């Protein structure tokens, strides 16, 4: 007898309704991390931005969290203590956009334009400075074409870390009489870091006092030691039997800030070992032991903490030691004869000192009143003998 598995009415429908309950697992809610908003774009999170050009600081009010400061020229840094950023140079002439931005989270920033873009027209353009001729500093600029008629440009410098300041000692003018250059004869008399400012004054106005912040103007931060690019010196080579001494002289106002490297190559080069390089030389000389008869040398130079510059031109050196000139054929025999004569004279003198001559006795005399004596005998009293007369 066969038994049917489903003979109860409605049982299939009941199983169909219970199936999803058994197959579906129990779901537990998972917490999600929602970032804390730092403020929407443009929200005022950093308030009351201030720029102090004297202290070169950007400060603000607001949260003391991590923040970054950006300037319009691309310079950026992390804030100190959360509420200030220091800059190496803050221009008083060219307007720049200073921005404070949160390090993390959604965009939160505030910006300030300093100095205000309300300066009158006529500021000088393309101001730049460079060091040349080992000691001179020259600053050059272009007078503004929209400057008032008869106006004149004056340059002064200020030390941004001390009260030192001064005016341009010597100007160079163009055909119209406008100043276009300033020349300092001795760059070593200037500070290590300073700000150069060119102020455009109206016709007939006296030059502004050094340190005055008049506008329109143009300014630039100057570090003379980084503005010098001296020419590569020539290598002088002197050779002897065993060494080749390479020496050079760098004409620079800051010679201690440069490093040198040498490249020598045997001529003709036959293998990779014939090429030798020496880097980071601080002295102005180098000695090659047992140099080849012919080689080439190149000099390279770089400023400390900077990349190497291009190699200088190759100098070919023929390091051949010249032999002394040959002696004339008559000179060796003459020198030998002279030496023999000198030796004989020296021997004769030595013999006389060792064996002095014996003096000869004095000759006898027929004089009865003179008693013959020897030169070497001692003087003794002599009693003359007389014959007694016979009585």
If you had to describe this structure to a student in words, what would you say it looks like?
With about 400 residues, the protein is mainly β. The protein has two helices and 22 strands. The longest helix is centred in the C-terminal third of the chain and has 24 residues, at about 330-355. It is elongated. The N and C termini lie far apart (about 220 Å).
List keywords for this structure.
4-stranded antiparallel beta sheet, elongated, 391 residues, Immunoglobulin-like, 22 strands, mainly beta
**Approximate strand percentage:** 25-35%
Strand element count: 22
Architecture per CATH nomenclature, i.e. the level-2 architecture of the domain at 125-226: Sandwich
**Amino-to-carboxy terminus distance:** 222 Å
Number of helical segments with 4 or more residues: 2
Please outline the major beta sheet: 4 strands, antiparallel
Shape designation: elongated
Element layout with pairings:
Blueprint: H1 11-23, E1 47-52, E2 57-61, E3 67-71, E4 76-78, E5 84-86, E6 96-102, E7 109-114, E8 125-132, E9 136-142, E10 152-158, E11 165-167, E12 171-173, E13 179-184, E14 194-201, E15 217-222, E16 236-239, E17 243-247, E18 258-266, E19 275-281, E20 285-289, E21 294-303, E22 315-318, H2 331-354
Antiparallel strand pairs: 1-2, 2-5, 3-4, 3-6, 6-7, 8-9, 9-13, 10-11, 10-14, 12-13, 14-15, 16-17, 17-20, 18-19, 18-21, 21-22
């Amino acid at each position: 007898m066969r038994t049917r598995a489903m003979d109860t009415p409605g049982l299939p429908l009941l199983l169909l309704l219970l199936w999803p309950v058994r197959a579906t697992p129990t779901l537990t809610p998972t917490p999600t991390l929602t970032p804390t908003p730092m403020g929407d774009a443009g929200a005022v999170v950093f308030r009351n931005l201030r720029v102090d050009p004297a202290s070169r600081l950007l400060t603000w009010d607001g949260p003391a969290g991590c923040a970054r400061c950006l300037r319009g020229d691309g310079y950026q840094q992390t804030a100190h203590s959360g509420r200030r950023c220091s800059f190496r140079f803050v221009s008083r002439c060219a307007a720049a956009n200073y921005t404070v931005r949160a390090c993390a989270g959604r965009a939160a920033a505030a910006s300030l334009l300093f100095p205000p873009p309300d300066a009158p027209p006529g500021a000088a353009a393309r101001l730049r400075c460079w060091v040349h001729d080992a000691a001179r500093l020259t600053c050059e600029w272009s007078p503004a074409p929209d400057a008032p008629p008869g106006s004149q440009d004056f340059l002064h410098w200020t030390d941004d870390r001390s009260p030192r300041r001064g005016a341009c000692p010597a100007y160079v003018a163009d055909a119209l009489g406008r100043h276009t250059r300033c020349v300092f004869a001795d760059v070593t008399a200037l500070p290590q870091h300073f700000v150069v400012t060119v102020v455009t004054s109206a016709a007939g106005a006296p030059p502004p006092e050094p340190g005055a912040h008049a506008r329109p103007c143009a300014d630039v931060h100057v570090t003379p030691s980084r503005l010098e690019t001296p020419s590569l010196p020539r290598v002088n080579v002197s050779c002897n039997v065993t060494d080749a001494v390479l020496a050079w002289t760098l004409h620079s106002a800051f010679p201690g800030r440069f490093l040198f490297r040498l490249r020598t190559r045997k001529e003709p080069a036959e293998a990779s070992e014939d090429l030798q390089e020496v880097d980071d030389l601080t002295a102005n000389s180098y000695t090659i032991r047992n140099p080849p008869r012919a080689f080439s040398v190149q000099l390279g130079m770089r400023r400390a903490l900077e990349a190497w510059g291009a190699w200088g031109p190759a100098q070919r050196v023929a390091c051949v030691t010249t032999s002394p000139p040959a002696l004339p054929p008559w000179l060796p025999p003459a020198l030998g004869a002279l030496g023999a004569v000198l030796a004989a004279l020296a021997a004769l003198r030595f013999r006389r000192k060792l064996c002095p001559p014996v003096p000869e006795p004095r000759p006898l005399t027929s004089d009865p009143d003179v008693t013959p004596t020897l030169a070497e005998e001692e003087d003794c009293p002599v009693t003359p003998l007389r014959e007694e007369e016979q009585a």
